[in-house]
Amino acid sequence: MVNFSRWRALGALLLCLLLILSAGAGGGTTIPLTPQEEAALYSLKNLSPVDLTPKRVKVEVYIPNVSETAAFIRLWSKVWPRVQSFYARMNVFPEQVPGQLRPGPLTPAQRLRLEVLPQKEWLARTFQAFNVAPPFQLRFLKVCENKYAFAHLPLSTVHFSYQRFAQAVLSSEPGSEPANVTWLANLIIHELGHLFSLYHAHEFTNDPVQEYLPDGRTPNFMSHHLTGDGDMGFVEFQKLMVHSYLSGGKVFQQLRLVEFDPLRHLDLLKRHNGFKEPPADRPPRTAPKAFGDYTEDDDDDDDD
Description:
Layout: H1 4-24, H2 35-42, E1 55-62, H3 70-88, E2 92-98, E3 111-117, H4 119-129, H5 137-144, E4 149-152, E5 157-161, H6 162-168, H7 177-195, H8 236-246, H9 250-257, H10 262-273, E6 293-295
Parallel strand pairs: 1-2, 1-3, 3-5, 4-6
Antiparallel strand pairs: 4-5
């Protein structure tokens, strides 16, 4: 008897291989997918084969030496090792490289950039990244309310306003430095997760990624519940997605075909996996302070 499920899996694998080869050929064009090919590519039921060997990713870190970032610069030597330690649990090893005013040769999944900016510069770069024309910038400021960081997957860049974060989240009480270091590291870990292809834990109600791990206590690092006392974690599905993306596998091909647009990617994942969005009136699960961040997968009505 013919094993049709095996042949379907083989067909999906061959499709991914074809896409990888076309990308490696250096051409900007892609082969249009049939509806069946699109469904196979964007299905997350089977991400295999996934290369789980150690992944090393360069991260440009640009921190202008100005008064607004002085406190962050002082804490950075304690923050970055925590970021690295978290991702080492995934067998992913971010490597910091010095960043200059102008970005270096950024490449999705290979060389990323973190910019820690003064408030005015953060707003200017945010407007530029979202291509917000001057007549609409005042309206867009509403989106920026209670936001501290923006992850731009198409740009392989995170913009972070330390001043806004410090005022809203960090403590100035004596002995508060360890908690401040943890919360800063958690935010950067979360934002890098977006640049590693991951979406927010609250996007869907029936996918493998929930806001808390199965123990009911540990917050998922792609949730906004990142300022508690304990560690945060991830599920195996997220590890597989990250490695699939960083190795040029199925998740990378999914995003490459939509020009690394998270909104289009989420729509295709929802359509081809039967994922359901939470009801608009669902009350958020209570938690410690929640981070405010924003990616292109959020809309103007979503209060991150």
